[in-house]
Amino acid sequence: MDTSKNELSLQLEQGTLNVKAAAIILHEGKLLVKKRDGIFVLPRGNVQFNESAEDALERILRIQLTANATVGRCLFVHQRFCDGEDQKPCHQLTFYFLTELSRQFWDREFFDGQQAAFCLLSAEDLKDRSAFPPFVTQCLKELPETTQVVTTRTSSKSFVQRLVAAAKQSRLISTARLALVPMQKEDAPQVFQWTSDSQVVRYLRYDKYDKVEDVEKWIESKRADEHLFGIFLKDGTLVGCANASPAEEGRYELGYSLNRTFWQHGYCTEACLALIAYTAEKFGAEDFHLSHAKENVRSQRVAEKCGFRFEKNGSYTTFDGSKTFQSREYGLKVTLHKMNLENESFLKVAEGTKSVELRLNDEKRRRVHAGDLIAFTDRLTGRKAVVKVTAMHIFDSFDKLYGSMDLARCGYFGESMFHASSNDMLKYYSKEKQRDYGVVGIEFTLLATF
User: Coiled coil: which residue ranges (predicted)?
Assistant: First the structure.
C-alpha cells in the first residue's frame, strides 16, 4: 500500500507544508546519524494524517533501523521557514524526540552490519556540519529541561535582498559563519525567543519580555542606533544581537545576548570580534569595555577569547532596581593600522585564502605588532577587511622569505605556485630597498569584512 499519499507533505498554492518527526539517539556520548547522499542527517521522516508524531517516529525507525524504539520526551519543536527545491516557500514543522533503541540494535555484530547506513558522531565531528541545527549538537553537552520551540527563517531570496540593502548602507558585517545586519520589525518573533527566556536574561539589566508586541516596539526604538546589529547565520537564521556603543571617557561598551539554542558554538565570540573590528575602523574606537555578573561564566569566556583583560570588580543594578549583581569588568585596547590592497589580493584575504601579507619592513610596518588590527581597503571597491595580526616574520630579503614561508598562505595557489618567485616583489620593492629595510610577512586571521 502506498502510504506516501497520507503523509503530511502538502503542496499548497503558496508553497509546501511538511510535518516531520526526528530522533535524537545518544549512545556512549555520541549521536546516531544516518548517511544520505554523502551527508549525515538524523533518522527522521514525515508524519502521516491522523498519526501522532510519536507513533510516526516509531514507525519510521522500524523501517529505517529495523529496530524497536522507545520514543521519549519531545526536546525541540522546530518551525522552519525556508525555500523549497522549487524555490517556493516551504513551511516545515519538525518534532525532535529523545529516543532509545533496543539492546539488539547496539549488539556489536548487528550494529557493525549497519555501518554502511548509520554511524555515531561526537560533538567535535558535528561541529562544522551545516546539515545539523545547532540545537541538535547541543544535546551532546546538555539536554534541555523542557521542550524548546525554535523558529528559523531561512528564505535565501529575501535574506540575500536584505544583505544587499544593508551593504548599500554600509551596515553589513560578514564573518566566516555570520552576517551582522540591523534588525527589523519582522524579526520580533525570533528575538522574542530569547528575550522571553529567563535563562538568557538572567544576568541582564532588563526583565524578560512577555509579548512579541513589546519586542517590536523595542526594535523600532533602536532603528536609528547605528551600533546595534542582529547576529544572523548565513542561512538567514537570527540567533542573537550585539552592540558596541559609545560610553564614558571615550570607551565603547560591548554588549550581547544570544538565543540559548545556539549557545556553545562560538557565535558570540565571532560576532563580538567582528563588531570590535568594525567599530575600530568605522568610528576610530581604541578602548572597549565589557562587564558581566561574576556567576556568568559563559560571558567570562567570551571576554577572554576576545582578548579583554580583567580590570576590577564592580556591580550593576537592573533597570527596575530589583536586583544588584556583583560583576567583573574588563578592558580592551585596540591598535588599528590601515593598508591598501589591489582587488585581486583583497579578494583572497576576504575569502580566507590568504593569511600572510608581504611588505617592506619600513617604519610603518615596524609599528605593527602581534595582537594589532589591520584594516585592508580594496583600492577598486573601497571594501574593508579587518584582520588580527598573529605574527611578524622578518627577513633580510624576499629571497629568504620565499624560501622559508608557506607561499599558499601568501596568496599563491594552483599554477601560480609553480611560478612563484621572489622576483615577483621587485615591481613593488627594489633590491636596494629590501637591503635597506628588510622585509616582513605579516601573518593574520580574518575577523570581518564590510
Answer: none
